[in-house]
């Protein structure tokens, strides 16, 4: 799906707000949206913003990174930070943690605060899966709150039960869902402990998104968050990812997988399947690469982010130039045909309307170029705080790479 140039720059602007390139207003609020893949994050965000976020899906397929969406609510500018789920089949937990840590560290270093967290869980899961438990553990490790007053747990995928002929069957279906819901609320391995620490649970429905956001806005006013644990660990304590609480959870798992792989490789004889040997060796190498990611420090992420930004800003400039050239040429072609003999008034009106639309398009693209030039200046001139410049560059570069996948 093609993305208009001005919308591309809007995406960059949202990243700039989240990561502190542009200073937020005191009334702005930033909420993390977390949960495993398929938990309904896009549906929730769409209901909040009133916009179709399918573009986010294609962007995510290119970058597997953070996405930022915005809307206005209760007189405030609300930013939703859509995060990739851990235990995703398309990307390692180490890569996901790196992307999350980079964005959150840049945000914190530039004095942008996270005001609350939305955790989505599908009630349709007949049991609490490993991926769901993994995301709960990682959310706790990333946030590290003493209390969870600023956490809204949203149960999604509630079915619309039809009026069945057998009233008994309908009631039984409702009873099973309510039983599952109550277990989630009372079992400490699930959400029980979080609710006792101040979290609130919601059943997602047609008007639930507004209720959730309203709740988090008021909780943020009563219980302001100073920092997430991972922000404090990386920015204030200068820990590499491997030494953060979230990194320790992932590192322990990787170490176990590496030990299993090494044992398997050592046990294979020359008569064993070549494919099996290759697969085991490849898996071991992937584990080592994940460990290398966890060894990254703030400085490493700064360096990598700066490099990605330098490459991606060139791509964005090229895309904007390409769109402007196409729009200018189309406008020229339409204008050059306006002196042809016109036999129908409708033809003239249609052409005139087309010319006005093209002029507006050209104007919008040029305005987008000017806006993007200002962001480039902030990056190049180091107008943002210290090492956070590189982290911010990494996040915006990731967005640019994803948008390039959509446009080019």
From TrEMBL:
InterPro entries: GTP-bd (IPR006073), P-loop_NTPase (IPR027417). CDD domains: Ras_like_GTPase. Pfam families: MMR_HSR1 (PF01926). It comes from the Eukaryota. Residues 32-100 form the G domain. One of its GO terms (molecular function) is GTP binding. This is G domain-containing protein.
């Amino acid at each position: 799906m093609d993305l208009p140039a001005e919308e591309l720059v809007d995406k960059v602007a949202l990243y700039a707000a989240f990561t502190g390139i542009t200073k937020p207003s005191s009334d702005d609020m930033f909420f993390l949206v977390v949960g495993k893949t398929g938990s309904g994050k896009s549906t929730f965000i769409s209901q909040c913003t009133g916009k179709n976020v399918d573009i986010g899906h294609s962007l995510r397929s290119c970058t597997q990174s953070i996405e930022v969406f915005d809307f206005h609510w209760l007189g405030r500018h609300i930013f939703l930070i859509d995060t990739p789920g851990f235990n995703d089949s398309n990307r390692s937990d180490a890569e996901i943690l790196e992307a999350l840590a980079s964005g959150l560290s840049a945000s914190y270093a530039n004095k942008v605060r996270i005001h609350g967290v939305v955790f989505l869980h599908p009630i349709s899961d007949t049991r609490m899966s490993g991926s769901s438990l993994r995301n709960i553990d990682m959310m706790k490790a990333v946030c590290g709150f003493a209390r969870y007053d600023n956490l809204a747990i949203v149960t999604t995928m509630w079915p619309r039960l039809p009026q069945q002929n057998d009233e008994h069957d309908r009631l039984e279906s409702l009873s099973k869902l309510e039983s599952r819901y109550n277990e989630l609320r009372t079992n400490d391995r699930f959400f029980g402990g979080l609710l006792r620490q101040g979290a609130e649970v919601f059943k997602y429905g047609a008007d639930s998104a507004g209720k959730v956001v309203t709740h988090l806005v008021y909780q943020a006013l009563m219980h302001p968050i100073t920092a997430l644990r991972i922000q404090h660990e990386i920015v204030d304590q200068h820990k590499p990812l491997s030494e953060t609480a979230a990194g320790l959870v992932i590192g322990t798992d990787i170490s176990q997988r590496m030990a299993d792989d090494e044992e398997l490789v050592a046990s294979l004889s020359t008569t064993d399947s070549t494919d099996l040997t290759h697969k085991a060796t490849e898996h071991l190498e992937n584990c080592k690469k994940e460990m290398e990611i966890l060894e990254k420090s703030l400085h490493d992420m700064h360096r990598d982010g700066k490099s990605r930004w330098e490459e991606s800003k060139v791509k964005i400039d090229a895309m904007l130039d390409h769109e402007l050239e196409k729009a200018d040429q189309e406008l020229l072609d339409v204008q050059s045909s306006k002196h042809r003999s016109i036999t129908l008034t409708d033809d003239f009106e249609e052409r005139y309307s087309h010319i006005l639309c093209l002029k507006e398009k050209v104007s919008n693209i040029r305005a987008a170029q000017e806006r993007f030039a200002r962001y480039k200046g902030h990056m190049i001139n180091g107008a943002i705080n210290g090492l956070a410049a590189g982290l911010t560059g990494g996040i915006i570069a990731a967005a640019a790479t994803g948008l390039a996948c959509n446009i080019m």
